[in-house]
Amino acid sequence: MECLHKESNTSITLTFYEKIYDSYLSGFYLPEDQMPFTALPMEAIKKCENDPERHPIVILADSIPVGFFILHHGENIRQYYDHPNAILIRSLSVDYQHQGKGYAKKGMQLCPGFVREHFPFIDEIILVVNNRNIAAQNLYKKVGFIDKGIRRVGPVGPQTVMHYPLR
């Protein structure tokens, strides 16, 4: 999946994580106020090592890792949404030095096509966003995620489950 970032002519792509990206991903920095809402890439990757239903994804800008997230499917996402053909986006982050350039938005715009290509059994993408994380909520709404009114309480407060139907 590739998209040309109009403002900068930067090629934005999504790819599955490989160890060759570790030097970039281990250097990701997030400000303190963002840390309650996500995980740094290397922390998230550790959780994927023993869970074949968690798939680490890298957002590349001209082949340089600038963002990261996990696609998670299976029984362990039922606590968020009980639908057997859903996949959950977790731990979305963009390295601080690359924030504000539209990379998260482009990555999320590419995500439905990426999921259709690599996970053909999936018919809905979901994510859970903290109610205090207004910037993330606005991003998800802009790329087409829908709030169907499902709420839950997470580790740092109330959360909204958002949906992106693929069919």
Count of β-strands = 8
What is the count of distinct domains? 1
Provide mean pLDDT, rounded. Answer: 92
CATH architecture type: 3-Layer(aba) Sandwich
The CATH homologous superfamily name equals Gcn5-related N-acetyltransferase (GNAT)
Distance between the termini: 19 Å
Largest sheet strand order: 1-2-3-4-5-6-8-7
Shape: globular
**Which fold name is given in CATH as the topology?**
Aminopeptidase
Counting copies of identical and different chains, the oligomeric state is single chain
Helix percent band: 10-25%
For the sheet with most strands, the description reads: 8 strands, mixed
What is the radius of gyration computed over CA atoms, rounded to a whole number of angstroms? 15 Å
Estimated structural class: alpha+beta
Low-confidence stretches: 1-7
Q: For the record, what CATH class applies?
A: Alpha Beta
Order of helices and strands: EEHHEEEHEHEE
**SS field, number of helical segments:** 4
Structure keywords:
167 residues; alpha+beta; Aminopeptidase; 8 strands; disordered N terminus
Task: Please give a structural write-up.
- There is one protein chain.
- The chain has 167 residues and is of the alpha+beta class.
- It has one domain (2-165): Gcn5-related N-acetyltransferase (GNAT) (Aminopeptidase).
- The protein has helices at residues 22-25, 41-48, 103-118, 134-142; strands at residues 2-5, 10-16, 54-61, 64-73, 86-94, 124-130, 146-154, 157-165.
- The protein has an eight-stranded mixed β-sheet with strand order 1-2-3-4-5-6-8-7.
- The radius of gyration is 15 Å and the shape is globular.
- Mean pLDDT is 92; it is low at 1-7.
